[in-house]
Amino acid sequence: MVGGSPMIDQAPLEAPWIHGRPRGAPDTDPPLQVRALDATTFVIRQSKSVTYEAPFLYLLVGAERALLLDTGAVEERRRCDVRGAVDALLPDDVDLLVAHSHGHGDHVAGDGQFAGRPRTTVVGRDVDSARAGWGFTDGPEEVVELDLGGRLLEVVGIPGHHPTSVAVYDRQTGSLLTGDSVYPGRLYAPDPELHAASLDRLVAFAGQRPVQRVLGCHIEMRREGGDFPLGARYQPDEAALPMSVDDLVAVRDGTRAAGGRPGVHRVGPALLWNGSCYPALARQVVRLVVDRVRGVA
Ligand SMILES: [Zn+2]
């Protein structure tokens, strides 16, 4: 898409997204899909054809500054031009802050596309850089405000999935962006205690604000429940992206009920993977191989 502008898909966030193709089918999917929640709020998904992670990225534009939350799983512009999409969506006189829901590779890989971009700050993926980038100076209960110019965001640390995990609340749209800590999929909690404590704080945080929707960074669940195999490149009838505050509460309640026990637990509309989960991971690899052979993944 270098030099072109991205097609903005007019469908609501609830509608099915481009979700990959069965093995052997011709790949005609665009490398990314852009939807507008309003005139200054964009949700970008990288296609299954360029990365099985198919992460969601968020671009929130204020009068003076914009926040790009995550740069996706693909390094090279020629494979997936996130930079080109942002350039096309962003007015020239607006500064850009590139920061991350957390520091995992599938959310930061595109950072290099923004190196040298005018009026742009790219926050590093490590703990110290992330804390400084958001302006955290205190403990995990701290809520920091980020003013984009007529658009106020509130950011709160929710470590557990990753030490740098944050949630971002956008007052303009009532959206709560929860990264990989809450989404319709496999919620990996290598530190179960920290993750559960973060969810408690996140539920309290959401309860004090008029949250319209909870938006995570992946979809891995089917509409009727159950997950697609890890690594799937074809996800027909996948669950909707937006979740409700009730869903968030159900995720928290399920996480509390799991009580830190290692393994896979159903938590509301998602699955909690507590601890290292090697047996469950092995089962996922077998599922993926079987589905690939059957041509359905
Ligand atoms: Zn991720």
Please, could you describe this protein's structure?
This is MBL fold metallo-hydrolase. Pfam families: Lactamase_B. It comes from Nocardioides taihuensis. InterPro entries: Metallo-B-lactamas, NDM-1-like, RibonucZ/Hydroxyglut_hydro. This protein has about 300 residues and is α/β, with parallel strands linked by helices. The mean pLDDT is about 95. Strands 1-2-3-4-5-6-7 form a seven-stranded mixed sheet, with helices on both faces. The protein is built from six helices and 15 strands. It has one domain (about 10-295): Ribonuclease Z/Hydroxyacylglutathione hydrolase-like (Metallo-beta-lactamase, Chain A, 4-Layer Sandwich). The chain has helices at about 80-90, 105-110, 125-135, 190-205, 245-260, 280-295, and strands at about 10, 30-40, 40-45, 55-60, 65-70, 95-100, 120, 145, 150-155, 165-170, 175-180, 185-190, 215, 265, 270-275. Helix 4 (about 190-205) packs antiparallel against helix 5. The structure holds zinc ion (ZN). Zinc ion binds near residues 55, 106 and 180.
